[in-house]
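Two proteins, back to back. First:
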Amino acid sequence: MSYLQESDTSSTVHKIIFKAFDQVRGADSIICNTVQELEPKTISALQLEKPFYAIGPILPEGFTKSKLKTSLWTESDCNKWLDSKPVGSVLYVSFGSYAHISKKELEEIALGIADSEVNFVWALRPDTVSSIDPDPLPKGFVDDTRDRGLVVPWCRQIEVLGHKSAGGFLTHCGWNSILESIRCEVPLLCFPLLTDQFTNRKLVVRDWTIGIDLGGIDTNVNRRDVSKKIGRLMKEEEGNEMKLRVKEVRKTLESAISPIGSSQKNFDSFIEVMMTRSRSMAK
């Protein structure tokens, strides 16, 4: 993980994360938004240290149709544009709500998207590269791809992923994004930027085989590779096979939160432990 490789330990992010490491040592137990069957070895190792309860995925039923805003930013409505595109033909692109990438990396990704000739929705925050560079896309990119692309500052991600035209997700590999993509049965193109995202990529690409590794800030990305891998995900048989596998992973998520599923059982066990401790303290 990136924060274990940093030579500069004075950064704000580094301090926040290592404070969390210190605090978790004092916890009596841990609950986590993951699924026992998806990370069995990691969870078993953690359970040797202290009680650890996998209770995910924390995704309410019908969440793709919820009207509840998920951020304070203005969210563009992409539905009309998505409705005009064929089923499974749109690549959704987003690097999340926090992480930043270099202008060079963003330009290469943009040029690769242009070369791929696929339909796309790109949620591109104005500060993705820098707060002083609100328009980091290559010159002419928006005009050249206007017939098949939609670039917005922000949108309701779950609504886009849940639309029938969504066929792939170029993502920074944030954990919530991965769970939402699996729930919507959309395979992934992985470009991790920091913290746990590199580990998440490993799960998606190597363990569950529901995505393709695009690289990340730990590699040099170029337009040719971007275009080629978008094609593999969106146009070739490899992508179709991943769509079948992501359906199976979704079934694992759904089974976990069923009345007899692992996450439901873990949550019940956690509640029982808390109730027992509460009764003991009350005596």
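And the second protein:
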Amino acid sequence: MRIAIPLFDRFTALDAVGPYEVLKYLPDAEIVFVAEEPGPVRDVPKWLAISADAAFADIDSCDVLLVPGGPGSRGLVKDDKLLGWIRRMHEGSTWTTSVCTGSLLLAAAGLLKGLPATTHWAASDVLESFGAIYTPERVVVQEKIVTAAGVSSGIDMALTLAAHIADQTTAEAIQLAIEYDPQPPFDAGSPAKAPQAAKDLLARGIGTR
């Protein structure tokens, strides 16, 4: 079972690594990181690199397509080469998935028109501009397309996907293996719940004070 994860400059590392950490436990899983060319691809803010195993041109099919997001995704919504590759992978995939603003690339490829989907809350308007119907749910399953909300929700998506691919017991065993038992110290994980001071700091830019 080939799981292809495309990488691009200024992706968000957890969007890719979170689901990877879950899906690698699936029986017969072969995870391939793909990029314009093999070699290291840096996240935002370019401190961490993941090495791509193959170039887009080398991968002509996959069972699972998992598109991460990140600031770099917005600049790729008109990249015909990448969008064409996503369409080709989707044609033969069993599952096509995204995390965070990775759904913008699925939408730009024409895969989400008229479908409920999710993304990072700050990109909901962009998602809808491509014809998708934004929903603030953490994970949205639409037949073979599964979209996840912002960053950390990729782990939830991957566990949901694991249950569909294998079974619930397998997914629960993976959850136990990675000790995924969220107990956040603050109730600030969505715009509806975050205090105004946190929203103001985010708007100014975290770490720029």
